[in-house]
C-alpha cells in the first residue's frame, strides 16, 4: 500500500523532442553569438575558430559530462540502495572542491601534476567520511544524505576559510566551482570522454554483482557476493567519474541525481536498464541546461554558470523524489550508554560553572606581542569592549545551536540530525546574498533583515513540506537537505560572480564572530533568552515525542502540534545563530552527543545540558581561533569543524562497540 | 445502577487505503469488564482495527463510540485517561529508566505543564508493583529482557489509566509476539488479573496463538481478510468448523488433559 504511484512514462517521442530542443537551444546559442568586427577574412577565421574550438567542444563536454555524472549517480544509487544519492548529496563535489582549493592555495604543483587526482582524493575523502558516519546505521538512506549534507557544509566552510586566508589568489576557483562549461579546446571533452568509456566498461563488468544488491546485505552475502569489495569498487568508480568531471568543469550537481530518477520513471527497472539509460538521460539533461544558458548568454558571457542553473532545477526535483525514499532504520536515538547521572541537577550546575569560568578566561586571557597574559585593570577595561561581543556571540550562538541540535535529534531520532542540515542556515545565506546583490553596500541592519527573511522562508518551506506527513521527521530532514543543496547551488552562483561582496559572504560562510558589535551582542543575548525560555515548559513533550507517534497519541499528546512547536523552535534558534556565526559550526551536532555521553537524559536536562555544552564548545572554538594563529584569526566555524568532525566520527564509531 | 450501553460500539466501521479494503464494514459491541481476543491470520485487519479503536487511524467509513460518545468527540487527554494502547512494536526509550518511563504514563493527568504530584507518583509506583518490576525500577528500559520490557510498557498503560471514574480499556496489539512461553504466560496472567480485580479493566488483545487466546479471553472476535468471520464466547469459538473458517486449515479440538479447556490443533 506504500507503493509509489506510477507516474506517467515518457515515451521515445518525448525523448526525441527533448533532444531536438537541446539541439535547437544550441543552435540559437550559436546564432546569437556576438558579432565580430573586422575584415571579412579575419572574421571568417575567427568564427571558425570559435565554432570548432569553443562552441562544439562545449556541446561535446556537456554531453559527455552529463553522461559521466548520470552513470556516477546511477552507480551510487545502486550500491547505497538510496534513490537520492549522487555526487552532490554525498558531499563528493564539495570534497573535491575543497581539495582543489587547498591544492591551489598551498601546493600548486599538485594541480600541475593532476587536477583530476586532487579532485578524486577530495571526493573519495568526503565519501569515506559519509560512509564512516552512517556505517553504524547500516547506510540507512536518510542518514547517508544527512551525513553527506554535513560533510558538504563542512567542506564548503573550510573552502571559504582557505579562500579568505589566501585572498584573491584562490578566488578564481569559485568561478570554476559553479560549473561553467566554457571551453577553449577539446581537452576537457577528451579527458571526460576517455574516463566515461573506461567507467562504462567497468560498470558493464560489474553488472551481475550489482543486480544482487537488490537484496539486503545478509541476502547478498549469503549468495556469495563479496559485499565490501564490491561497494568499495563501485564507489571508487563513481567518485572517479565525478572527479574527472569536477576537475574539468567544476561542480554540476543534481545531474547524477536526476538521470537515474528519470531512467526509472521512463520505465527502466533492472540495474542494466538503469545503468545504460542514466548516462543518455544525463547527457540530454546537461545539454538542455547548457543550451538554455547559451541561448540566454549576453555578449559579455553567461548569465549564470551551467552548474548553478542545474542546481536551481535540481532542488525542486529532489523534493519531488522524496516520497521514494524510505528509511530502512526505524527512527531511534543512539543506543543508550546506560550511564546515568546520579544527581543530574548538580552536574548541570557544575557545567554552568565551567561555562562561566571559560567565559571569564576568554575575556581576560590572550596572547600579546610579548607572550600570554591575563589582562587586568585598565587593560582589561580597554579590551572588554572588543572581547565581550565575541564571547557573548559565541556563547549565545553555541547555546542556541546546542539546543536546536538536541531538539532535532530528539524529534527525528537520528543521531546525525544537526540543526545545520535543516537548510535554514543556507536559507539565511541566500538572504544575505540577495541583499548583497540588490543593494550596493547593504548595512548590517539590512543584511540581518535579509538573512531573517531567507531563514524564515526556509522554515516555512520545510514545515509546509513536512506538514503533509503530520511533521514526520524523515520528510522534514530530507526537505531540509533538498533545500540546503539548492541554497548552496545558489550561493555557488553568487560566488562565481565575484566582487568584494563575495568576501562578505565568504566571511559569513566560514563562520566568525568578528563582526558582532555591542548592540548586536545585546540583541543576540535577548533573542537567546527569548528562545530558550519556553524550553522548561516543553520538557514533557521532549520526553514523550521521541517514543513515536503511536505512544504519544495514546497518551493524549497533540502529536502534530508538538512536533510543529519543537521544529519551529529549533529552526528559529538555527536561524538566529546562523546569522551571527555562519551556517555551520558542528556545535549543534556535537553538543547533544556530549550531553548524552555525560549522562544527561531527561526531557528538561538534556536540552539544558546541550545548550551549556554548545556554548562551551563555541566559546572554546572562538577563543582558540583567536589565539592559535595570533595575530591572525581562524574562522570559528572552520575551527569547530576541524576539531569537531573527527571527534564526532570517533564518537559514533565508539558506540558501535555497544550495539 | 442503570445498565449502560456497551463500552465500545462499532457501527459499520471500515478502512480503505490506497484503493484497497483493509477492513470491511464491521458492526460490533464490546462490553465493559471483559477480556476480548482478536484472532485471525496475518493481514486479516486485526492491527488496523486496534488502531481505529486507539484513535491512531481514522476509519474511512462508519462510526465508533466509546462509553456512548463518538471517538472524534473525545478530547485527547480525556480519552487517554480511559483508553491505553500498546503498539505492536514498542519504541526504543533512549536510556530512560523504568520509573521514568512509567511516569510518562501520567501525562494525560498532568498535561504539559501540570505538576507531577503525589497522586501521580503513587499511580506510577502502584503500576510498577502491579507488574512486578519494583526490583528493576531504576534500570534502563533498553537493557531489560523482552518480557521485562513488555511488562514495563504495560506498567505505563496502568499508570495512564489509574484514577478517575468510568470504565477503562487496555488495547494490546500482539503483546506476546516476541516472548517465550513462560513470559507469555506471565504477561497474560497479569492481563487476566487486571480484568478480574477491583479495577475491572476491559482488555482487547490481539493474539496469534489460538490456544493462548482461548485460555486468556472471555470472548473471541475472528477476522479474516478484513471481514469478521465469527465472534462469541471463547469456549464456543473453539470448534473445528469455526477455526477452519478463520485459518482455512483443517483443525481439531481436544480437551486439555488437566484443565479440560478446549485446545485447537492442526489436523
Annotation keywords:
heterodimer, A: 659 residues, mainly alpha, ABC transporter involved in vitamin B12 uptake, BtuC, 2 domains, two-stranded antiparallel ribbon, 2 strands, 74% helix, globular, disordered N terminus, B: 267 residues, alpha/beta, Rossmann fold, 6-stranded mixed sheet, 4-stranded antiparallel sheet, 10 helices
Written overview of the protein:
The complex is a heterodimer of chains A (659) and B (267). Chain A is mainly alpha-helical and 659 residues long. Chain A folds into 2 domains: 60-324, ABC transporter involved in vitamin B12 uptake, BtuC (Orthogonal Bundle); 344-367 and 383-656, ABC transporter involved in vitamin B12 uptake, BtuC. Helices cover 74% and strands 1% of the residues of chain A. Chain A has a two-stranded antiparallel ribbon with strand order 1-2. In chain A, 54% of the residues are buried. Mean pLDDT of chain A is 80; it is low at 1-8 and 330-338. Chain B has one domain: Rossmann fold. In chain B, α3 crosses α5, α3 packs parallel to α6 (146-161) and α5 (118-130) packs antiparallel against α6 (146-161). Chain A binds chain B through residues 1-3, 330, 332-338, 340, 537-538, 540-541, 543-544, 546-551, 553-558, 596, 601-602, and chain B through 17-18, 20, 54-56, 75-81, 83-87, 89-97, 100, 104-105, 107-108, 111-113, 140, 142-143, 160. Chain B: It is a peripheral membrane protein. Chain B: Keywords: ATP-binding, Cell membrane, Ion transport, Iron, Iron transport, Membrane, Nucleotide-binding, Transport. Chain B: This is ATP-binding cassette domain-containing protein. Chain B: GO terms for molecular function: ATP binding; ATP hydrolysis activity.
Amino acid at each position: 500500500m506504500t507503493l509509489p504511484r506510477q507516474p506517467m512514462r515518457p515515451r521515445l517521442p518525448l525523448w526525441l523532442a527533448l533532444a531536438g530542443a537541446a539541439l535547437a537551444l544550441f543552435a540559437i546559442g550559436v546564432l546569437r553569438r556576438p558579432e565580430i568586427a573586422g575584415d571579412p577574412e579575419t572574421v571568417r577565421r575567427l568564427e571558425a575558430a570559435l565554432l570548432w574550438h569553443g562552441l562544439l567542444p562545449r556541446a561535446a563536454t556537456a554531453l559527455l559530462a552529463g553522461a559521466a555524472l548520470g552513470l556516477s549517480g546511477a552507480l551510487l544509487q545502486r550500491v547505497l540502495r538510496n534513490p537520492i544519492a549522487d555526487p552532490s548529496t554525498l558531499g563528493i563535489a564539495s570534497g573535491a572542491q575543497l581539495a582543489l582549493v587547498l591544492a591551489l592555495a598551498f601546493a600548486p604543483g599538485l594541480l600541475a601534476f593532476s587536477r583530476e587526482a586532487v579532485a578524486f582524493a577530495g571526493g573519495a575523502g568526503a565519501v569515506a567520511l559519509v560512509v564512516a558516519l552512517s556505517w553504524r546505521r547500516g547506510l540507512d538512506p536518510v542518514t547517508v544524505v544527512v551525513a553527506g549534507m554535513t560533510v558538504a557544509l563542512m567542506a564548503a566552510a573550510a573552502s571559504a576559510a582557505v579562500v579568505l586566508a589566501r585572498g584573491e589568489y584562490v578566488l578564481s576557483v569559485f568561478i570554476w566551482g559553479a560549473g561553467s562549461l566554457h571551453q577553449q579546446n577539446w581537452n576537457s571533452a577528451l579527458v571526460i570522454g576517455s574516463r566515461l568509456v573506461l567507467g562504462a566498461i567497468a560498470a558493464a563488468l560489474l553488472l551481475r554483482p550489482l543486480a544482487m544488491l537488490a537484496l539486503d546485505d545478509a541476502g547478498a552475502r549469503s549468495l556469495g557476493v563479496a559485499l565490501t569489495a564490491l561497494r568499495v569498487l563501485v564507489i571508487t568508480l563513481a567518485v572517479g567519474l565525478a572527479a574527472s568531471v569536477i576537475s574539468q568543469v567544476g561542480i554540476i550537481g543534481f545531474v547524477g541525481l536526476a538521470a537515474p530518477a528519470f531512467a526509472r520513471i521512463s520505465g527502466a527497472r533492472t540495474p542494466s536498464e538503469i545503468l545504460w539509460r542514466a548516462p543518455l538521460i544525463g547527457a540530454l539533461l546537461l545539454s538542455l541546461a547548457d543550451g538554455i544558458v547559451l541561448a540566454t548568454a549576453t555578449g559579455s558571457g553567461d548569465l549564470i554558470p551551467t552548474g548553478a542553473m542545474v542546481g536551481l532545477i535540481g532542488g525542486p526535483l529532489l523534493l519531488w523524489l522524496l516520497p521514494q525514499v524510505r528509511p530502512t532504520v526505524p527512527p531511534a536515538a543512539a543506543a543508550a550508554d546506560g550511564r546515568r547521572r546520579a544527581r543530574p541537577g548538580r552536574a548541570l550546575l557544575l557545567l554552568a560553572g565551567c561555562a562561566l569560568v571559560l567565559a571569564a578566561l576568554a575575556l581576560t586571557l590572550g596572547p600579546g606581542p610579548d607572550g600570554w597574559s591575563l589582562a587586568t585593570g585598565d587593560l582589561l577595561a580597554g579590551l572588554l569592549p572588543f572581547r565581550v561581543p565575541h564571547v557573548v556571540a559565541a556563547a549565545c550562538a553555541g547555546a542556541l545551536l546546542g539546543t536546536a541540535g538536541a531538539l532535532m535529534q530528539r524529534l527525528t531520532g537520528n543521531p546525525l540530525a544537526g540543526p545545520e542540515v535543516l537548510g535554514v542556515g543556507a536559507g539565511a545565506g541566500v538572504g544575505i546574498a540577495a541583499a548583497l546583490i540588490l543593494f550596493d553596500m547593504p548595512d548590517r541592519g539590512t543584511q540581518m533583515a535579509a538573512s531573517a527573511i531567507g531563514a524564515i522562508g526556509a522554515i516555512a518551506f520545510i514545515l509546509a513540506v513536512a506538514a503533509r506527513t503530520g511533521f514526520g521527521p524523515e520528510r522534514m530532514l530530507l526537505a531540509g537537505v533538498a533545500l540546503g543543496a539548492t541554497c548552496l547551488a545558489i550561493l555557488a552562483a553568487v560566488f562565481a560572480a565575484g566582487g568584494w561582496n563575495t568576501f562578505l559572504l565568504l566571511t559569513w560562510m566560514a563562520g566568525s564572530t568578528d563582526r558582532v558589535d555591542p548592540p548586536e551582542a545585546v540583541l543576540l543575548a535577548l533573542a537567546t533568552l527569548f528562545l530558550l525560555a519556553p524550553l522548561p515548559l516543553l520538557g514533557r513533550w521532549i520526553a514523550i515525542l521521541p517514543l513515536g507517534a503511536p505512544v504519544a497519541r495514546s497518551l493524549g499528546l497533540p502529536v502534530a502540534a508538538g512536533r510543529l512547536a519543537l521544529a519551529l523552535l529549533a529552526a528559529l534558534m538555527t536561524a538566529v545563530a546562523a546569522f551571527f556565526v555562519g551556517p555551520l559550526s558542528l556545535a549543534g551536532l556535537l553538543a547533544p552527543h556530549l550531553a548524552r555521553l555525560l549522562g544527561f537524559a531527561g526531557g528538561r536536562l538534556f536540552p539544558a545540558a546541550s545548550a551549556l555544552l554548545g556554548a562551551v564548545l563555541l566559546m572554546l572554538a572562538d577563543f582558540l581561533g583567536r589565539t592559535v594563529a595570533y595575530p591572525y584569526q581562524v574562522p570559528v566555524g572552520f575551527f569547530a569543524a576541524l576539531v569537531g568532525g573527527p571527534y564526532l566520527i570517533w564518537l559514533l564509531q565508539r558506540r558501535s562497540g555497544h550495539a | 445502577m442503570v445498565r449502560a450501553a456497551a463500552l465500545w460500539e462499532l457501527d459499520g466501521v471500515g478502512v480503505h487505503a490506497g484503493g484497497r479494503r483493509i477492513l470491511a464494514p464491521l458492526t460490533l459491541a464490546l462490553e465493559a469488564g471483559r477480556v476480548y481476543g482478536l484472532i485471525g491470520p496475518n493481514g486479516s485487519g486485526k492491527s488496523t482495527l486496534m488502531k481505529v479503536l486507539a484513535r491512531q487511524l481514522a476509519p474511512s467509513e462508519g462510526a465508533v463510540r466509546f462509553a456512548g460518545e463518538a471517538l472524534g468527540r473525545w478530547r485527547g487527554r480525556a480519552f487517554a485517561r480511559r483508553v491505553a494502547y500498546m503498539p505492536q512494536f514498542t519504541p526504543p526509550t533512549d536510556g530512560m529508566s523504568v520509573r521514568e518511563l512509567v511516569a510518562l504514563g501520567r501525562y494525560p493527568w498532568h498535561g504539559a505543564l501540570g505538576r507531577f504530584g503525589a497522586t501521580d507518583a503513587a499511580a506510577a509506583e502502584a503500576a510498577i508493583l502491579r507488574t512486578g518490576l519494583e526490583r528493576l525500577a531504576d534500570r534502563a528500559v533498553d537493557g531489560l529482557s523482552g518480557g521485562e520490557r513488555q511488562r514495563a510498557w504495560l506498567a505505563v498503560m496502568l499508570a495512564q489509566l489509574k484514577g478517575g471514574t468510568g470504565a477503562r480499556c487496555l488495547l494490546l496489539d500482539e503483546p506476546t509476539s516476541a516472548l517465550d512461553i513462560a513470559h507469555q504466560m506471565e504477561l497474560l496472567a497479569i492481563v487476566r488479573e487486571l480484568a478480574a480485580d477491583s479495577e475491572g479493566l476491559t482488555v482487547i488483545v490481539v493474539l496469534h496463538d489460538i490456544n493462548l487466546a482461548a485460555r486468556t479471553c472471555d470472548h473471541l472476535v475472528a477476522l479474516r481478510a478484513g471481514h469478521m468471520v465469527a465472534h462469541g464466547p471463547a469456549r464456543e469459538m473453539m470448534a473445528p468448523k469455526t477455526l477452519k473458517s478463520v485459518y482455512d486449515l483443517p483443525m481439531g479440538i481436544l480437551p486439555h488433559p488437566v484443565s479440560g479447556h478446549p485446545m485447537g490443533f492442526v489436523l
